[in-house]
C-alpha cells in the first residue's frame, strides 16, 4: 500500500519471488523446502537438547555447538516459514514493520554465527595446542563471555545495518524480487541515493565475514602445524639409536 497525501510513502512490500512460477512448481518447492526445513529443525533441536541436558557433554565444544544450533534455528526460521506461506497463498504482502524486523534478525543472527564459528575454532586451537591450560583458558565463565560477545556484536551490528538500510524514506516501487526482505533489494527501493548505504553494507559484510575467517584459518593452521610438529618429533625419536 502507498499513502498519497503529501508524498508517496511505502507502508508495505510485496514479495514477488515466486509469482512467475506455476502452481505445480510452487507445490513442489513447498514440499521440498518444508522437508528440508523440518529436517534442519529436527537435527538442530536434537543437538540443542542433547548438548544442554546430557552432563557427559558438559564441555566448551558442545556448549558452543548448542548455541550455534540455536542460532541456526533462529536464522532459518526468520525466512523459511514466510516463504512456505507465500508458496501456498496468493497474498504476498509484507508489512513495513515485518520487513524491518526480518532484516534485523537476519543481520543479527548472521553476524553472531560468524563470530561464534571463530570462537569455536579458537576453542579447538586451545584444546589441541595447549591441552594443559585448556580447562583454565576455556572455563565456563570464559565460554559464557565468548557467546555473549557473539550475541552483543550481532545485536549492535544489526542495529547499524538496519539504520543504513532504512535511513531514507521509501517512496518508490514496493515490489521485492525475492521471497524475503533482502537488504540490497530493499535499499534500492528507497527515495535517496542507495549507493552509499550499499557500499557501507558491503564493506561491513567483508569485515564481518573476513575477520572470523582469518581467525579460523589461523587457528586451524596452528593446529595443523602443531600436529605435524608432534608427528615429526615422534618419528625422530623412533629413528634415534637406542643405547643398550
Automatic annotation (TrEMBL):
Give the matching Pfam families: 7tm_1
Report a single Gene Ontology molecular function: olfactory receptor activity
Arranged from A to Z, the UniProt key words for this protein are: Cell membrane, G-protein coupled receptor, Membrane, Olfaction, Receptor, Sensory transduction, Transducer, Transmembrane, Transmembrane helix
Compartment list: Cell membrane
Supply the PROSITE patterns for this chain.
G_PROTEIN_RECEP_F1_2
Which InterPro entries does the entry mention?
GPCR_Rhodpsn, GPCR_Rhodpsn_7TM, Olfact_rcpt
| Membrane-topology descriptor | Multi-pass membrane protein
**Where on the tree of life does the source sit, at the highest rank?**
Eukaryota
Role summary:
Putative odorant or sperm cell receptor.
Protein name, UniProt field = G-protein coupled receptors family 1 profile domain-containing protein
Q: Which organism was this protein described from? A: Balaenoptera physalus
Q: What is the lineage of its organism?
A: Eukaryota, Metazoa, Chordata, Craniata, Vertebrata
Amino acid at each position: 500500500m502507498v499513502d498519497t497525501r503529501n508524498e508517496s510513502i511505502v507502508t508495505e512490500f510485496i514479495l514477488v519471488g515466486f509469482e512467475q512460477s506455476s502452481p505445480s512448481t510452487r507445490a513442489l518447492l513447498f514440499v521440498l523446502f518444508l522437508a528440508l526445513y523440518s529436517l534442519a529443525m529436527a537435527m538442530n533441536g536434537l543437538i540443542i537438547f542433547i548438548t544442554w541436558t546430557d552432563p557427559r557433554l558438559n564441555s566448551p565444544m558442545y556448549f558452543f555447538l548448542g548455541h550455534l544450533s540455536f542460532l541456526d534455528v533462529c536464522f532459518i526460521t526468520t525466512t523459511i516459514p514466510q516463504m512456505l506461506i507465500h508458496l501456498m497463498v496468493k497474498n504476498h504482502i509484507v508489512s513495513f514493520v515485518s520487513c524491518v524486523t526480518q532484516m534485523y534478525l537476519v543481520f543479527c543472527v548472521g553476524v553472531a554465527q560468524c563470530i561464534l564459528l571463530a570462537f569455536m575454532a579458537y576453542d579447538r586451537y586451545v584444546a589441541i595446542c595447549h591441552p594443559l591450560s585448556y580447562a583454565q583458558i576455556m572455563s565456563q565463565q570464559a565460554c559464557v563471555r565468548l557467546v555473549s560477545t557473539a550475541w552483543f556484536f550481532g545485536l549492535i551490528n544489526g542495529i547499524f545495518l538496519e539504520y543504513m538500510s532504512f535511513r531514507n524514506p521509501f517512496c518508490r516501487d514496493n515490489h521485492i524480487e525475492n521471497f524475503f526482505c533482502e537488504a540490497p533489494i530493499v535499499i534500492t527501493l528507497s527515495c535517496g541515493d542507495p549507493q552509499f548505504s550499499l557500499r557501507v553494507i558491503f564493506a561491513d559484510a567483508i569485515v564481518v565475514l573476513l575477520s572470523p575467517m582469518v581467525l579460523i584459518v589461523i587457528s586451524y593452521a596452528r593446529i595443523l602445524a602443531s600436529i605435524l610438529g608432534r608427528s615429526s618429533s615422534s618419528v625422530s625419536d623412533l629413528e634415534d639409536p637406542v643405547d643398550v
